[in-house]
Amino acid sequence: EGLAGIGACVSTVTEKGNTVTAVNYAIYSRKGMTAAEYGKSERAHWGIENSLHWVLDIAFREDESRIRAGNAAENMNMARHIGVNLLKQEKSCKMGIASKRKKCGYDMAYLYKVLGGLNTGIK
Q1: What gap in Å lies between CA 73 and CA 65, rounded to an integer?
Q2: Which helix or strand (DSSP H or E) is residue 102 part of?
Q3: What are the tens digits of pLDDT across the range 61-97?
Q4: Which of 3, 11, 113, 122 is 20 to 30 A away from residue 21, measured at CA?
Q5: Is 7 helix (H, G, I), strand (E, B) or coil?
C-alpha cells in the first residue's frame, strides 16, 4: 500500500506548425508497474480527461465558473455531469454536445425530449 512510484509522461504535439511539449507527472500505488504499463495507464487517463472534461470545459464553460459558496460548486458539477449524460443519450439530432445544449435553450420540445432521458413522464 501507499506510494509505489513516480512517473513522468512527456508528450509533444505539433498542430498547424506549432509544436508544444508538455510533461505530466503522476504518482501511483501499483507495485512493479513497467514503463509500458505506466504509459498505457496514462493514455487511458488522458482519454477520460479529454472525452469528459473537454466537453465540460467547452460546452458548459466549467473552467470559467466562479461558483464557490458552500456545496454549490459540487452541486453544479453534478448537474453538469447529468446534463452531459442526458445530451449524449439523445440521438435524434446529429450535433455535438454544445450545439444540443444550445438547442435546448430555444426549442422546448427538444428540451423535453432530452429530459425524457430522466424518465420524468414529460412529453
Answers
A1: 9
A2: helix 97-106
A3: 877 778 888 888 888 888 888 988 899 899 998 998 8
A4: 3
A5: strand
CA distances, 109 to each of 38, 86, 87, 95, 121 (Å):
47, 15, 14, 16, 14
DSSP 28-95: E--TT--HHHHHHHHHHHHHHIIIIIHHHHHHS-GGG----STTHHHHHHHHHHHHHHHHHH--SS--
Give the phi and the psi of residue 4 in degrees, each rounded to 5. -110, -25
- pTM (two decimals): 0.56
Which residue in the block uniquely carries the three cell numbers 456545496?
71
What confidence tens digit (pLDDT) does each residue in 24-49 have?
888 888 888 888 888 888 888 777 77
Mean pLDDT of 94-101: 90
Residue type, 117: G
SS3 22: strand
